Amino acid sequence: MRTDMLIDGEWTTGSGTTFPTLNPATGEVIAEVPEATETDVDTAVRAAAAAFTSPAWGGLLPAARARLLLRVADLLEEHADEMARLETLDQGQPLQVSAGFSVPNAVEHFRYYAGWVTKITGVTAPLSIPDVDYRSVREPLGVCGLITPWNFPLMILVWKLAPALATGNTVVIKPAEQTPLSALRLAELIEEAGVPAGVVNVVTGGPETGRALVRHPLVKKISFTGSTGTGREIGAECGRTLKKVSLELGGKAPSVIAADADIDAAVQGNLLGGLLNSGQVCAAYTRFYVDAGRHDEFAEKLAGAAGSLRLGDGLHPETHLGPLVSAEQVAQTTRYVGLGRREGAELLTGGNRPDGELASGFFFEPTVFAGVRQDMRIAREEIFGPVLAVLPYEDPEELAGLANDSAYGLAAAIWSRDIGTANRLAREIKAGTVWINMMQGLDAAAAWGGMKSSGLGREMGWAAIEAYTEIKSIWTSHN
C-alpha cells in the first residue's frame, strides 16, 4: 500500500522528512511515513478549497454524491479483510474487534450518510410580515479539518468523513501519528471510487501538523477526537478565529451495579465494556459502583474473568486482548497502577507487563482494583489502559452524585433489574450516552458525544448533518 500523503489527487512525500509507525505487538517499524510541514498543510487546504467550488464536486447533484459514498462503502467492504488486518497491525486491536466491529461500522456509516444526501432539507415558516415568503436551506461549510485518534483510527475517521462528504464539504485529514496507515489506505479506495481530486486530502505528522491545520485561515471547521488537554487548545484556537469546532474528548465512564443487578451478567458486560481494545476506549467502563453487600462478589468475579483473558498479537485468532498502542501508553498505565497501590486500593489481578515472548511488545496485564475510594486518582483520571476500579457504595440515593463527581461526562452504564430505578438514574447521570444492562453500543443513527470536559457537539445521526452545515435564511417579497 502507499505510505505517501494524498494532496490534490497526487501522492507525495512532501518535504521528505519521515517518521516511523510501529507494530505495537512487536515494537518493530512497519513503515516510514511523511512528516507534513506547514507548507504541505497549506497546499492540501488550498486544494480542498478549490475542489469545494469546482463543478466536479461543488456542482455535483445530490444523487451523484450519494452514489459516490455508496461506492466507497462497497470498496471498503470488498477490502474488509485487508483493512481489518492493517488496522490490527498498526493499532494492535484484535482481529475480532477490527474485523467484527471497526471495519463493518465504517462501512455502515458511509451507507447511512449516503442515504442522507438527498434528504437534507430546510424549513418554511410563516412570518408576521405581509407579502413575504421565508425559507431556510442547509449549506456545506467548506474545508473541514478532521483530526483523528489512534484508538479506532479507521472507524472514528469515517464518523467524521462520511457526514462531511455527504453534506458537500471537502476535507483535509490528519490521522494520529501512531496509526496513519488505515487512513492512507482508505484514501486510495476513495480515489478508486471516483471522488474528485482535492475533495479528500491526507496529511500525516505529529502535533505541529495538527496545529497548522487548526490555524489555517481557509479551514472552516475542525472536528477533533482525542485528549481533553489537546481539545481545550484546539477549542481555544477555533474560538479566537471563530471556526466551527466539534470535540469528542476524554472519559471516565461510571458503571452503576445496583443491589438487584444480575451480577454474572454485570460482570460479563463490564468486563467487555471495560477491556475492549485493552481499555483504550474513551467510553470504557472504568469505575464500578457496586452495592457494598455485593462488592466483594462482583470484584472477585470480575478479577477472575479479567485474569483469564489471553494477551497476544491481535493477528492471532485466539487473542482476547492486544497490546497498548505505544510505549507511552504502557508507561502511563504503569504509573497509574503504582498510584492505585500507593493510595491503598486492593490489587486483585494484573498490574504488570507480561514477560516472555510478549516482552518486546506494548502489552499490559488486565488489572482490577477493589475497595477503591472516590478520591483516588485511579477513580478520577482517565488512564486509557486495562485498569478497572471497583468502588463500594452504601446508599443508593448517593449513586447519581458519585457518578457525576467527575470532570468527564461522555458515557455511563447502569445495571439493574428494576427498569424504573435504571431510567431514573439515566436521567440523573450527566453523560452524553447511558447504556442500561448492556456493554457499549454504537450505531450510525444514534448521536454520540459528551458533556463537561468530554467535549462539544455530537457526531452520528442527524446531529452530524447539523455539524457539517450552516443554515441560510432566504426571504422573498411578493411585490
Automatic annotation (TrEMBL):
Record-annotated Aldehyde dehydrogenase domain positions: 11-474
Family annotation (PROSITE patterns): ALDEHYDE_DEHYDR_CYS, ALDEHYDE_DEHYDR_GLU
Residues that span the membrane, as ranges: none
Keywords: Oxidoreductase
4Fe-4S found in the keyword field: no
Top-level taxon of the source organism: Bacteria
Molecular-function annotations in GO: oxidoreductase activity, acting on the aldehyde or oxo group of donors, NAD or NADP as acceptor
Protein's name in the database: Aldehyde dehydrogenase family protein
Source organism phylogeny: Bacteria, Bacillati, Actinomycetota, Actinomycetes, Kitasatosporales
